[in-house]
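Tutorial, part two.
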Amino acid sequence: MTSLSRRLLPSTSALAAFDAVARHESFSSAAEELSLTQGAVSRQIAALEEQLGAALFDRTSRHVLLTDAGRAYLSGISPALASIRAASLQVMSQMRGTTLNLAFLPTFGTRWLIPRIPRFVAQYPDIILNFATRIGQFDFEREGLDAAIHIGQPDWPNADCTFLMEETVAPVCSPAFLKQHAITEPNDLLRLPLFNMASRPGAWSHWFK
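Running the prediction step on this input gives:
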């Protein structure tokens, strides 16, 4: 492979980092999805930008947004990444049996789903499980996923949705914070700093209603 060929073919790690940051508009969310540190993802993006000789993200705004070059690059590589995922899964399923590609929220996966996997594997030993953590909304066709356990509305693109359960989200604080600020009713929270979850941008407004 010539040096030019190597320059035109970035590493899959860099491409995966670019794809994740582009979808989440966040280095931290991309890092969580990829099980990497935020610094590692940032270095992958910096190396990719240096290799291509172009800035792919605008980092000056509140969110990490794609530049014109970044949007064009994402549009070009997305079909290729989807093809690679599909080809890999096809070979794996042919060699080892049926494959189930499942996405879920990170906390739900670690606290509820993963502890129950051994029982599933014992009952269905021929099914290969491939997991992916996702925070925001995603496209099933482009991601090569079969199913997802996620929060969202029934108008999810390219998917048939089945309602599982209501979600209960409640504000929490330490006993010391509660005592210090004399919180006795919901309106008391309006004068205090509130932390938001990236995956629940409307949680506070919904709770106050």
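The mean pLDDT is 84. In part three we will examine how such features are distributed along the chain.
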